[in-house]
Design goal:
Elements lengths: L3 E3 L13 H8 L4 E6 L7 H11 L2 E6 L14 H20 L4 E4 L15 H20 L3 E4 L13 H11 L4 E6 H4 L6 H8 L3 E5 L4
Parallel strand pairs: 1-2, 2-3, 3-4, 4-5, 5-6, 6-7
Helix pairs in contact: 3-4, 4-5, 5-7
């Protein structure tokens, strides 16, 4: 088992000035460190990679900063879906450049975009097709694609472990995995153990949130 921390525990915006946090993570006995990226986050990938390697930290990246709302794999507009796929592929490339092992988050849609209805079967298939493409891109770059279900007040696409597993089955790519977050799980399920077991060998990690 590996233990890690999200950069937002320490800072609200990642940059080269925050590299000392890798040392903090190492001193805390952590194995992994997650960096939130976006169009307003700028840092030197090689310097980041070198520093993480020097202290023995595994890096994980996730969208969390500026992520344009129109870049959405579940959008009805095919142009928005296409832009969303291209945007996520760039983040996968960035993950690979820092030596990261996984790119994770609500990659199937865009947090905060709610249409208050389930996806139709055709829409669901389009999301799955794009995730297959993203997973293939990740596999070519040695990066796991990890889907995080989020609460129903954050997304209408995937809210539970069961739904994540079903979407992964529809996409049918071995490089798709699941990350579960207790902050989101508490609003959707009552049996955490059952939710975790649902993911079986697709489970990549668990975010434990307090308060």
């Amino acid at each position: 088992m590996k233990y890690g921390a999200h950069c937002y525990i320490f800072t609200d915006h990642w940059s080269d000035d925050q590299l000392y946090l890798f040392d903090t993570a190492r001193d805390l006995g952590l194995d992994c460190f997650e960096i939130s990226v976006g169009d307003d986050v700028h840092f030197n990938p090689q310097t980041t990679r070198d520093h993480a390697s020097a202290v023995g930290l595994e890096l994980i990246l996730s969208p969390g900063a500026l992520w344009p709302r129109e870049y959405d794999l579940s959008a009805p507009d095919p142009t928005r879906r296409s832009h969303g796929l291209a945007w996520h592929k760039r983040q996968v490339d960035l993950t690979a450049s820092v030596g990261g092992t996984a790119y994770t988050g609500a990659l199937y849609g865009h947090p905060g975009v709610l249409r208050y209805r389930p996806l139709s079967d055709d829409e669901y298939s389009l999301v799955a097709e794009n995730l297959y493409d993203l997973a293939e891109h990740g596999a070519r770059n040695g990066v796991k694609i990890v889907l995080e279900p989020m609460s129903h007040f954050r997304t209408h696409v995937i809210n539970t472990a069961d739904q994540a597993v079903c979407l992964i089955a529809r996409a049918n790519h071995p490089n798709l995995h699941v990350l579960l977050d207790t902050y989101h799980m508490v609003t959707e399920v009552r049996d955490y153990e059952a939710a975790i077991r649902t993911t079986q060998d697709r489970l990549c990690g668990l975010h434990a949130c307090e308060g």
